[in-house]
Amino acid sequence: MTLYGVVNMDIVASRKKSKELREKIQHNLFEYIEYINKKFKGILVAPVELTLGDEWQLITLNPESSYNIIHEFQKLIWKDNFQFYAGVGIGTLSTDIYDDTRKMDGECFLNARKALEIVKNNSYSQKYIHSKNNRVFFYSPTMNDIENNLSIYKNEFDIKEVAATSKRDSQFHQNINIANLINTIIENNEILINKMTKKQQQIYLDYIELGTYRKIIEEKNTKETIGGISQKLNNAEFFTIQQNYKMIEKLFAYYCDMRRE
Protein backbone atom coordinates (compact mmCIF):
# COMPACT_ATOMS: atom_id res chain seq x y z
CA MET A 1 0.00 0.00 0.00
CA THR A 2 1.39 3.38 -1.03
CA LEU A 3 0.95 6.15 1.52
CA TYR A 4 1.33 9.85 0.82
CA GLY A 5 1.78 12.87 3.05
CA VAL A 6 -0.30 15.96 2.35
CA VAL A 7 0.15 19.35 4.00
CA ASN A 8 -2.42 22.14 3.68
CA MET A 9 -1.26 25.60 4.75
CA ASP A 10 -3.13 28.86 5.23
CA ILE A 11 -2.00 32.34 6.29
CA VAL A 12 -3.10 33.38 9.77
CA ALA A 13 -5.69 36.23 9.81
CA SER A 14 -4.96 37.13 6.19
CA ARG A 15 -8.22 39.09 5.82
CA LYS A 16 -7.21 41.42 8.64
CA LYS A 17 -4.00 42.46 6.90
CA SER A 18 -3.73 45.51 4.68
CA LYS A 19 -4.01 45.17 0.92
CA GLU A 20 -0.36 46.17 0.54
CA LEU A 21 0.83 43.57 3.04
CA ARG A 22 -1.30 40.84 1.46
CA GLU A 23 0.16 41.61 -1.95
CA LYS A 24 3.68 41.50 -0.52
CA ILE A 25 3.00 38.20 1.24
CA GLN A 26 1.57 36.62 -1.89
CA HIS A 27 4.53 37.82 -3.98
CA ASN A 28 6.96 36.32 -1.46
CA LEU A 29 4.95 33.09 -1.28
CA PHE A 30 5.47 32.47 -4.98
CA GLU A 31 9.22 32.76 -4.43
CA TYR A 32 9.14 30.46 -1.40
CA ILE A 33 7.04 27.87 -3.20
CA GLU A 34 9.46 27.91 -6.13
CA TYR A 35 12.35 27.34 -3.69
CA ILE A 36 10.56 24.43 -1.97
CA ASN A 37 9.68 22.85 -5.32
CA LYS A 38 13.36 22.86 -6.29
CA LYS A 39 14.70 21.70 -2.92
CA PHE A 40 12.23 18.82 -2.49
CA LYS A 41 11.69 17.92 -6.15
CA GLY A 42 12.78 14.33 -5.51
CA ILE A 43 10.04 13.62 -2.95
CA LEU A 44 7.17 15.83 -4.12
CA VAL A 45 4.45 14.04 -6.09
CA ALA A 46 3.44 17.30 -7.76
CA PRO A 47 4.63 20.91 -7.50
CA VAL A 48 3.51 22.89 -4.45
CA GLU A 49 1.00 25.53 -5.51
CA LEU A 50 -1.50 28.06 -4.22
CA THR A 51 -4.93 26.44 -4.22
CA LEU A 52 -7.49 28.91 -2.87
CA GLY A 53 -6.91 32.52 -1.84
CA ASP A 54 -4.07 32.41 0.68
CA GLU A 55 -3.93 28.61 0.95
CA TRP A 56 -1.33 26.29 -0.54
CA GLN A 57 -0.74 22.56 -0.37
CA LEU A 58 1.81 19.88 -1.10
CA ILE A 59 1.83 16.11 -1.50
CA THR A 60 4.95 14.05 -0.85
CA LEU A 61 6.04 10.47 -1.43
CA ASN A 62 7.79 10.62 1.96
CA PRO A 63 5.09 11.29 4.58
CA GLU A 64 7.74 11.25 7.32
CA SER A 65 9.20 14.45 5.81
CA SER A 66 5.96 16.43 6.10
CA TYR A 67 6.82 18.31 9.29
CA ASN A 68 10.36 19.06 8.08
CA ILE A 69 8.96 20.68 4.92
CA ILE A 70 6.62 22.79 7.07
CA HIS A 71 9.67 24.04 8.96
CA GLU A 72 11.34 24.96 5.68
CA PHE A 73 8.39 27.26 5.00
CA GLN A 74 8.57 28.61 8.56
CA LYS A 75 12.22 29.55 8.15
CA LEU A 76 11.46 31.32 4.87
CA ILE A 77 8.70 33.50 6.34
CA TRP A 78 10.56 34.50 9.53
CA LYS A 79 11.65 37.75 7.89
CA ASP A 80 8.07 38.55 6.85
CA ASN A 81 5.27 39.81 9.03
CA PHE A 82 2.98 36.78 8.85
CA GLN A 83 2.46 33.23 10.11
CA PHE A 84 0.55 30.26 8.76
CA TYR A 85 -1.48 27.26 9.88
CA ALA A 86 -0.49 23.80 8.68
CA GLY A 87 -2.54 20.61 8.65
CA VAL A 88 -0.85 17.26 7.97
CA GLY A 89 -2.60 14.15 6.66
CA ILE A 90 -1.21 10.73 5.75
CA GLY A 91 -3.06 8.15 3.70
CA THR A 92 -3.81 6.70 0.30
CA LEU A 93 -4.78 8.34 -2.99
CA SER A 94 -8.11 7.55 -4.67
CA THR A 95 -7.26 9.29 -7.97
CA ASP A 96 -4.47 9.21 -10.50
CA ILE A 97 -1.41 11.41 -9.99
CA TYR A 98 -1.54 14.80 -11.72
CA ASP A 99 0.76 17.82 -11.86
CA ASP A 100 -2.07 19.87 -10.35
CA THR A 101 -2.72 18.89 -6.71
CA ARG A 102 -6.31 20.17 -7.01
CA LYS A 103 -7.10 17.29 -9.37
CA MET A 104 -6.09 14.67 -6.80
CA ASP A 105 -8.08 13.34 -3.88
CA GLY A 106 -8.09 10.54 -1.36
CA GLU A 107 -7.61 9.74 2.29
CA CYS A 108 -4.38 11.76 2.56
CA PHE A 109 -6.13 14.91 1.30
CA LEU A 110 -9.19 14.39 3.50
CA ASN A 111 -7.00 13.99 6.58
CA ALA A 112 -4.97 17.11 5.75
CA ARG A 113 -8.13 19.19 5.28
CA LYS A 114 -9.47 17.93 8.59
CA ALA A 115 -6.17 18.77 10.29
CA LEU A 116 -6.22 22.31 8.90
CA GLU A 117 -9.84 22.70 10.00
CA ILE A 118 -8.91 21.62 13.53
CA VAL A 119 -5.90 23.91 13.84
CA LYS A 120 -7.88 26.92 12.55
CA ASN A 121 -11.09 26.31 14.50
CA ASN A 122 -11.06 27.46 18.12
CA SER A 123 -13.78 25.06 19.22
CA TYR A 124 -11.72 22.12 17.96
CA SER A 125 -8.49 23.61 19.28
CA GLN A 126 -9.74 23.48 22.86
CA LYS A 127 -9.85 19.70 22.53
CA TYR A 128 -6.76 18.94 20.48
CA ILE A 129 -4.44 21.94 20.78
CA HIS A 130 -3.43 23.44 24.10
CA SER A 131 -1.18 26.35 23.13
CA LYS A 132 -1.91 29.45 21.05
CA ASN A 133 1.69 29.21 19.86
CA ASN A 134 0.97 25.97 18.03
CA ARG A 135 -0.38 26.27 14.49
CA VAL A 136 0.55 22.79 13.23
CA PHE A 137 -1.57 19.65 13.59
CA PHE A 138 -1.47 16.06 12.33
CA TYR A 139 -4.83 14.35 11.91
CA SER A 140 -5.33 10.59 11.93
CA PRO A 141 -8.84 9.08 11.67
CA THR A 142 -7.87 6.65 14.43
CA MET A 143 -7.15 9.32 17.01
CA ASN A 144 -8.73 8.53 20.34
CA ASP A 145 -10.47 11.17 22.38
CA ILE A 146 -7.52 12.72 24.19
CA GLU A 147 -9.48 12.89 27.43
CA ASN A 148 -10.42 9.21 27.24
CA ASN A 149 -7.44 7.67 25.52
CA LEU A 150 -7.64 4.19 27.03
CA SER A 151 -8.19 1.82 24.11
CA ILE A 152 -6.93 0.77 20.68
CA TYR A 153 -9.41 0.36 17.86
CA LYS A 154 -9.73 0.19 14.08
CA ASN A 155 -11.63 2.84 12.11
CA GLU A 156 -13.44 2.83 8.76
CA PHE A 157 -10.07 2.64 6.93
CA ASP A 158 -9.07 -0.41 8.99
CA ILE A 159 -6.01 1.39 10.35
CA LYS A 160 -4.17 -0.36 13.15
CA GLU A 161 -2.97 2.11 15.76
CA VAL A 162 0.18 1.45 17.73
CA ALA A 163 0.14 1.89 21.49
CA ALA A 164 2.58 1.52 24.35
CA THR A 165 1.02 -0.30 27.28
CA SER A 166 1.88 0.08 30.94
CA LYS A 167 0.23 -2.46 33.25
CA ARG A 168 -0.44 -1.02 36.70
CA ASP A 169 -2.31 -4.16 37.66
CA SER A 170 -4.07 -7.02 35.90
CA GLN A 171 -7.22 -4.94 35.28
CA PHE A 172 -5.82 -1.60 34.15
CA HIS A 173 -3.89 -0.62 31.02
CA GLN A 174 -3.01 2.84 29.77
CA ASN A 175 -2.45 3.07 26.03
CA ILE A 176 -0.60 5.83 24.18
CA ASN A 177 -2.03 6.67 20.76
CA ILE A 178 0.85 7.38 18.36
CA ALA A 179 -0.98 10.23 16.57
CA ASN A 180 -1.51 11.96 19.91
CA LEU A 181 2.15 11.37 20.76
CA ILE A 182 3.25 12.96 17.47
CA ASN A 183 1.02 15.97 18.08
CA THR A 184 2.32 16.39 21.62
CA ILE A 185 5.92 16.61 20.37
CA ILE A 186 4.89 18.91 17.52
CA GLU A 187 3.10 21.23 19.95
CA ASN A 188 6.08 21.40 22.31
CA ASN A 189 8.38 22.06 19.37
CA GLU A 190 6.16 24.82 17.99
CA ILE A 191 6.13 26.51 21.40
CA LEU A 192 9.93 26.54 21.40
CA ILE A 193 10.10 27.86 17.82
CA ASN A 194 7.66 30.68 18.54
CA LYS A 195 9.65 31.86 21.56
CA MET A 196 12.70 32.72 19.46
CA THR A 197 13.69 36.36 19.05
CA LYS A 198 14.61 37.81 15.65
CA LYS A 199 18.32 37.67 16.55
CA GLN A 200 18.00 34.04 17.64
CA GLN A 201 16.20 33.21 14.41
CA GLN A 202 19.03 34.73 12.37
CA ILE A 203 21.72 32.80 14.27
CA TYR A 204 19.56 29.66 13.91
CA LEU A 205 19.47 30.14 10.11
CA ASP A 206 23.17 30.99 9.90
CA TYR A 207 24.16 27.89 11.86
CA ILE A 208 22.01 25.63 9.68
CA GLU A 209 23.59 27.17 6.58
CA LEU A 210 27.24 27.20 7.71
CA GLY A 211 27.49 24.57 10.44
CA THR A 212 30.13 26.17 12.68
CA TYR A 213 30.37 29.24 14.91
CA ARG A 214 33.63 30.35 13.29
CA LYS A 215 32.18 30.27 9.78
CA ILE A 216 29.27 32.42 10.92
CA ILE A 217 31.70 35.04 12.20
CA GLU A 218 33.87 34.89 9.07
CA GLU A 219 31.19 34.77 6.37
CA LYS A 220 28.35 36.80 7.88
CA ASN A 221 30.56 39.74 8.89
CA THR A 222 28.92 39.78 12.29
CA LYS A 223 30.11 41.30 15.56
CA GLU A 224 28.99 38.17 17.39
CA THR A 225 31.56 36.15 19.34
CA ILE A 226 31.72 32.37 19.46
CA GLY A 227 30.39 32.53 23.01
CA GLY A 228 27.57 34.86 21.95
CA ILE A 229 26.53 32.58 19.10
CA SER A 230 26.60 29.55 21.37
CA GLN A 231 24.48 31.33 23.97
CA LYS A 232 21.88 32.43 21.40
CA LEU A 233 21.60 28.91 19.98
CA ASN A 234 21.19 27.45 23.46
CA ASN A 235 18.65 30.10 24.47
CA ALA A 236 16.74 29.35 21.27
CA GLU A 237 16.77 25.63 22.19
CA PHE A 238 18.26 24.94 18.76
CA PHE A 239 19.53 21.46 19.54
CA THR A 240 16.31 20.41 21.29
CA ILE A 241 14.29 21.59 18.28
CA GLN A 242 16.50 19.62 15.89
CA GLN A 243 16.17 16.50 18.03
CA ASN A 244 12.39 16.92 18.04
CA TYR A 245 12.36 17.06 14.23
CA LYS A 246 14.32 13.83 14.05
CA MET A 247 11.99 12.13 16.54
CA ILE A 248 8.83 13.29 14.74
CA GLU A 249 10.25 12.05 11.45
CA LYS A 250 10.90 8.63 13.01
CA LEU A 251 7.40 8.51 14.53
CA PHE A 252 5.80 9.39 11.19
CA ALA A 253 7.83 6.61 9.56
CA TYR A 254 6.70 4.19 12.29
CA TYR A 255 3.08 5.29 11.86
CA CYS A 256 3.36 4.54 8.12
CA ASP A 257 4.92 1.14 8.80
CA MET A 258 2.01 0.25 11.08
CA ARG A 259 -0.46 1.34 8.42
CA ARG A 260 1.17 -0.93 5.84
CA GLU A 261 1.04 -4.05 7.99
How would you explain this protein's 3D organization?
By secondary structure, this protein is α+β, with helices and mostly antiparallel strands. It has one domain (4-195, 237-260): Alpha-Beta Plaits. It is built from 9 helices and 7 strands; from the N terminus they run E-H-E-E-H-E-H-H-E-E-E-H-H-H-H-H. The protein has helices at 19-39, 66-77, 107-120, 122-128, 178-194, 198-210, 213-219, 226-235, 238-260, and strands at 4-11, 49-52, 55-60, 84-91, 136-139, 165-169, 172-175. The strands form 2 sheets. Strands 2-3-1-4-5 form a 5-stranded mixed sheet. Strand 6 and strand 7 form a beta hairpin. Helix 3 (107-120) packs across helix 4 (122-128), helix 5 (178-194) runs antiparallel to helix 9 (238-260) and helix 6 packs across helix 8. The chain is globular. Residues 145-162 and 165-174 have low confidence and may be disordered. It comes from Anaeromonas frigoriresistens. Pfam families: SatD.
